[in-house]
Amino acid sequence: MIFTPKETLTEREVENGLNTVLKEGMATEAMVTLAGGTFMVAFAIMLGASNFQIGLLASLPTFTNIFQLVSVFLIRKYNNRRAVSVICCILARIPMVLLGAMPFFFGDNAPVSLLLCFLFFYYLFGSIAGPSWNAWMKDLVPGDKLGAFFSKRSRYAQILNVVLSILLAVSIDYLRRNAPQYQLYVYAAMFMTAGIAGLGAVGLLARVPEPRSYLPNENIMKMFVKPLRDKNFQRLLVFNSLWLFSVNIATPFFTVFMLKTLGLTMTYIIPLTILSQLASILTIGYWGKFADRYSNKTIISICAPLYLACVIAWCFVGIYTNLISNLALLAVIHIVSGSSNAGIGLALTNIGLKLAPSREAIVYLSVKNIITAVFSSLAPLLGGYMADYYTLRQLRVIAEWSGPNLQKTFRLLLLHEWNFLFLIGAVLMVIALQFLPRVREAGEVHKSVVKRIMRTSLRSNLRDYFVIDVLINWHSSLNNMLKINLLNSEKTSREQRHQ
């Protein structure tokens, strides 16, 4: 297939290209789901991975972003973003097929180091393909539709993720109970299928047209220094790096915490993940709409505190051994974090695209990804080391009630191993948020104004905006419910007195 870019694209070519990108997103999501973080972590634990190795596994996707400089070099040399994306994606998906084949050659003794090696090359070539794909999509997707298009693509992908995750979770737990000797090979088949689905996505990507780009004929090092001299872009880099560091010091270990400490199976973990994805699906379209209409920074300032509250709530999971109370708290955490993280991820991607000059988009985005990759990859490594350090340490906060007929001890807080990480991550998030107001975005609207506009929109269409309305107006809703219950109680009492 000829990958030569075109000088201009017709509206029909753009429309067909965007439809193909949506299909490619579905195939890529199938790959990501089959080889997803939860399943990959469970697979690594079955192979005997240590906490540090789990942290290393979590750091690979971001650590390999430092190689995005290679992408810029290739595009400068060949000026063909589609060719770079397609070839690198092929090289990325082959290691996933080989990873899936490991248990068939090594059985239960498959080395974790080989797993990490295959994942390194999977993420390495994916990272090289990333900047060329981002710059390509920036020129292909109309600027006023960036938020709406990518939220739509993400929503479709997440729906597929939900369906596949349910099927996989049920299948894995069924085998765990009835044929545990085959469980490792089921994971192997999943990862091989993931690689094949990824290669299918590459076939679709190769059909998407590319408008010709023009990179300035400058020294490549000077090009990379230019974004660092852009004061506003500097501020975005500082906030984005600190935020990702604080998030990644804790979040990669949520699954490990549920598997190891709480002893939950996939039957519980995957539905919780699906709850998070459903919340993301229901809200991401509206985050995209409001981001396009107002500003991405405003969406971050609304969503980030919600996500921070979720990380703090993880510190209280497992205080009591009651399964129902833990699952209820986990369900609330996953719903709120899914919705808020959807807004944060979308806004951070879009604000990077927005602040990058069109002709130098790939350079700006590569610098952003490389710098944030350093902080993102160091965080889980530090988190794994700290988890080992806190394994034999605990902090308990209790309240005791003593009376003639009752003596009761209430556990208010229990920090051990993973919970320490969650609290440390939350503190770092608070620090990171102090740097967000320094970023300047064109068309920025204060978050209080956007909240007021959201409330007006939500009240006019409660069904469509239900989840966001709960997030913003939960306190008002609770007060109204209490008032209604009180009025109903008074009405019942009056009727009983009359009878």
Automatic annotation (TrEMBL):
One of its GO terms (molecular function) is transmembrane transporter activity. CDD domains: MFS. Pfam families: MFS_1 (PF07690). SUPFAM superfamilies: MFS general substrate transporter. The chain crosses the membrane at residues 30-48, 54-76, 83-106, 112-136, 156-172, 184-206, 236-259, 265-287, 299-321, 327-349, 361-382, 418-436. The keyword Membrane applies. The keyword Ribonucleoprotein does not apply. Keywords: Membrane, Transmembrane, Transmembrane helix. It comes from the Bacteria. InterPro entries: MFS, MFS_trans_sf, Sugar_transport-like. This is MFS-type transporter involved in bile tolerance, Atg22 family. It comes from Dyadobacter koreensis.
